[in-house]
Every structure is written in C-alpha cells, then in structure tokens.
Amino acid sequence: MKHWQLNKEENGIVVVxxxxxGESANSLSAExxxxxxxxxxxxxxxxxxxLIIRSGKExxxxxxxxxxxxxxxxxxxxxxxxxxxGWNLFNRLAAVPYPTLALVRGHCLGGGLELALACRYxxxxxxxxxxxxxxxxxxxxxxxxGGMLRLPRRVGPAAALDMMLTGKSIDAKRAKKMGLADxxxxxxxxxxxxxxxxxxxxxxxxxxxxxxxxxxxLKSVVANGARKQVAKKARPEHYPAPYAIIDLWxxxxxxxxxxxxLIDRIITSPTARNLVRVFHLQERLKGFGKDSDFKARRxxxxxxxxxxxxxxxxxxxxxxxxxxxxxxxxxIAPALKRAYALFxxxxxxxxxxxxxxxxxxxxxxxxxxxxxDVVIEAIFENVEAKHALFKSLExxxxxxxxLATNTSSLKLEDLRTVLAKxxxxxxxxxxxxxxxxPLVEVVEAEGADPATVQAACxxxxxxxxxxxxxxxxxxxxxxxxxxxxxxAAMRAVDEGISPETVDEAMLAFGMPMGPxxxxxxxxxxxxxxxxxxxxxxxxxxRCLIERVEKNQLGKKSGQGFYxxxxxxxxxxxxxxxxxxxxxxxxxxxxxxVEKLVADGVVADPELADAGVIFGTxxxxxxxxxxxxxxxxxx
Length: 634
Fold this sequence. Notes:
Elements: E1 4-8, E2 13-18, H1 30-45, E3 50-55, E4 60-62, H2 67-70, H3 76-94, E5 100-104, E6 107-109, H4 111-117, E7 121-125, E8 131-133, H5 147-155, H6 157-166, E9 170-171, H7 172-178, E10 183-185, H8 190-198, H9 209-214, H10 219-231, H11 241-252, H12 260-267, H13 270-286, E11 298-302, H14 306-317, E12 321-325, H15 329-347, H16 350-359, E13 360-362, E14 374-377, H17 383-393, E15 402-405, H18 412-415, E16 425-429, E17 439-444, H19 450-462, E18 466-471, H20 478-494, H21 499-509, H22 515-522, H23 524-534, H24 542-549, H25 581-598, H26 605-616, H27 625-633
Parallel strand pairs: 2-3, 3-5, 4-6, 5-7, 6-8, 7-10, 11-12, 11-14, 12-13, 14-15, 15-16, 17-18
Antiparallel strand pairs: 1-2, 8-9, 16-17
Helix pairs in contact: 1-3, 3-4, 3-12, 4-5, 5-6, 6-10, 10-11, 13-26, 14-15, 15-16, 20-22, 20-23, 20-25, 21-25, 25-26
C-alpha cells in the first residue's frame, strides 16, 4: 500500500501505521481512506486479536481531511459523497468485533479525531504537541464523519458542543480528564500501555446519568442553550455552520446524511469557500521564515509598558528566557503582574506557571542585551528617544542578534540613521492585546539585510504568531487601513448618527467590534495622533476633538464615546441603521488596502487580505477586503 503499513505481531495484534506518501503530515484523502477500507476488508477475513492505529509521522497522528480535496467540491453531489465516505468507513471501524485502539501522539484533528473516536480505546501520549479537536467550524463546515455522534456520547453534550462550536483543541491530560481519552501516558511507555489497554477488555467510562439525559430526552434544553451562546458571537447569515452542528446533533444524532439539504447548503456556501480560502492564507503566512535556521532562546525587551510587557510575557510563555528592561523595578512590576495572570490562565499547572514566571527576568540595567538573540525596542513613539537607545544598544549586541523595533507609526529609515549597521534594524510590530492577536507585521526598510528579515519572520513563527512581511511606511498595513475606517465612523457620529448605531452597522456587516468601540479601546489620544499622520492632513472629527479636550480618552480613562467605568462599554440601544452605512464606512478601508498593494507596502492582494483579517478581525466569512470587493464587482 502507498499510505499505510500493516504489521502483524506474534501475539495476534495487528498494528497499522498511517504514513501519507510525499507529505510531512497525515491527512485523510480519498486514496488514504480507500486503502484503509482495503485493510478492514483483509481483517474481516482474518480477524486479529486487536488492532492498533498509529502514525508514522513525527508531526502527529492525523491533521484531518485533505483540505485540497474539500476545495474542489463544486457540486452538492460531491459534498454528499465526501460526507458518506467518512461516515460509512468510520461506522464500519466502530462495528468490528475485535478491540481497536488509536495511539494518539501529536495533533489529532478533524477527521483524525473522528477516526480515533470510532476506535474502542483512545490512548493519548502526554507531550506538548498532543492536541485533539474538531475544528471544522473554522472552515465553515461540520464534523460529518461521526464526530457529532460520538464526541457527545464520549464526553457529554455540553463539553462536546463547546469543542465543536469553537473549534478549540485540548491537550492529552485534559482529554483524559474529560473522558475523551481512556488514558494519558508518557512517550516512553506508550507502546506497552497501548497493548495492555487494547487487550484489557475494560469497559469505557460510562457517562454520568445526567449527561445521558442531556444526550437523550433533554437534548432540546442543551441545543437551545447552545444556540443562544452561538448567537452572541456569530450571525446565522454569516456563519451557518455552528447552527447546523447544533441541529444535526439535536435532530439527527449527528448523521448529516439524514439532512442532505443541509449538507448542500453548508458545503456549497460562500462562507465555507471563503473560510477555506482564509485557511490557505494562514498557511501561506506560516511559510514565512521557514527557510531561516535562526532560533531564538533569549529575548530582551526594552519598555515595560502594556505592549513591551505583554510581548515579554508572551515570549516567556512560549519557552524563551526573557529579560525586561525599564527605568526601575516599579515600572516593571505591573508587567510582571499581568504576565502572572496570563501564565495562570494559559498554563493552569502550578509548576508550569512557576517555570514561565522564572523565565521572565526584570532587568532595569539592561544586562540581558549582551546575551539576547532578539532585542525588541518598545518605548514611546519619539524619534530622538529611540535614537539615543539604539546608539547605546548597538555596541552591546552579540553578532547575529536581531535588533527590532515595535514602532507602529514611525519609518524605520528615520530610526536607523544612528546605527553603524543600519541594515540590521527590522520592525517586529505586535498588536494589542498581544496574547489575543495572531498577526505580527515584520517590517523591512529599504536596503535591509534579507537574512535579518528572514530571521525576524522565523522568530515570529517560533512564538506561534503569523508573520506578515511589509515595507516601511507609517502605519504599515494594519494601522494604515484602520485609520480611514475609524475616521469615517467618527464623521458619521459628527453627522448625528449615534455611536451605538454606527457600531451596530459594522457588527451586522460581520466585524468583531464596532469602529467607535475600537477607537475607545485604542485610546482617543492615540487615534488623534495616528489620524494626523495617516489621514493625509484631514481635519480631525469634531466628536474626537471635543472628547480629547475633556480628557475623555476611552477605555483607559473610563470614559470616551462610551462609559467604561464597569470595565465594559456601556451602550444604549442602537437606532435604525441608515441604508448603505456599512458600505460607506468600509469603503475607505478597502480603498486604502488597494493603494497599499499598488504601492508595494504588502506584496499582493492575497497577503493584504490575510493581514487585514488576522490583524483587524475583518469579517473572515467575506474572504478579506480585496476578495470582498472583487466578488462584489462580479
């Protein structure tokens, strides 16, 4: 066989190894699944004592279905055939008379988890790369190969729907605690543990009585609650898949073939096509920096404000030793407090939290500069202050270290004039909040050293962010496109449209946050400064000037366009939305994206779409601003 190896052991156990030919990761293409069907044919003739399914790849178990094949589904019949292929094959696996076990090490996602769920036992290997999830909803589709049937039976409907409706993945320990995995073992004993569990005859852990009720007679209670939760985050006209998942589970026990019209509607929807496009854009961003062998172990961050402190915390969370510099320990203390909160939320294990905190070292004197592989400047936006800092840093840097600035509004060409080797300065521009925003702009000034830019991209990838190469120009891509959008929104407020109505228009369009709430979150003083620089000399909106004069600076001051005294924006009811308001507000943003592509600030329309989606949250179901306009013009 091309993609599977079948090994029969003396004890009667058969081990089948999936190792997809020509690929670094396993995915379930039509050919891979057809071969697995042939394996089951063989085992029907000579049933083994037990069957273990495992991966032959370093990268993990199975990453899911073959996305390339999904991209080619241009008719309803092809969509139904794809669902039927996995549903029937995995039902067949679930029905075999001998015990079966999936040995899960590394990522086990989508169709990979559906295959593992069809086995009698699931053994998870406890290491950092082991992640299990059903992320189909992120592609605008549903887990139609048995995930909607088996996951609720295994872990209960509330936990299962939470995984399926958010697309989030869980680690090996959490999988065992939930009952998704039967056991969780370290790599050194996984072979022995797999064989013991396979032949143990032990029954699966039964669902508690209440969970069985919620999975049966009380399904409608769970489904109604799930619909209300989904409605808070996604509108059915924009994202139909989560609603389909709830309906398929509640009404058809997860069997999508019982609702062929729903399959047709979801799989051929523009949302699914566009979200698959966004997936490919994300993969393209992940490719930047892969050709560099640069690997950072130590990072030094200068400036312990919100941005600098949070960049330092994120790097420490990702396993690096980080020194954080500011004028004194009092200035660094708030950053350490925020870092501890981040580590506690993300890591949960007290030992791991302590380890991460130990990696984040206050460094008022800047002693870490000499040892750092990456030095990131994150002080206030002032050219003279940055000049003085770079002059003092350059002689202390070790050879090959990346020198980076997190500036959001200054040109690198202006900042590097004091350096003996100006070509070594690169921009690594994070977005706030650092822990939430996936995109990082890697800024290349004219005449920059290409190897340094590649190293910066590799570093961004290393800390699990998406690097986007951009040219040095004030605002780069993301801030430059947000400025005219926020300006247009505030001009609408000047015309008498309430902030709530403006925000509601853009939420209905599909933005994750309204533009007026965004201005409040960014800070009205920052919006004023950025506006002067990025709005081409246009006068600031009256509503902005009035509030800045009263020191109403938004969320950070407790009052801006909205009252933030409770920590959240206190909004009144939105009025009726004037016809065409959303299109009017989004047009300046798209115009600016087109200009930045034409000017070469970002290399091509696809990368511009990727940057604006992952950097601003621009409605992913549209496929991005350039794609949205292109489709609209057709």
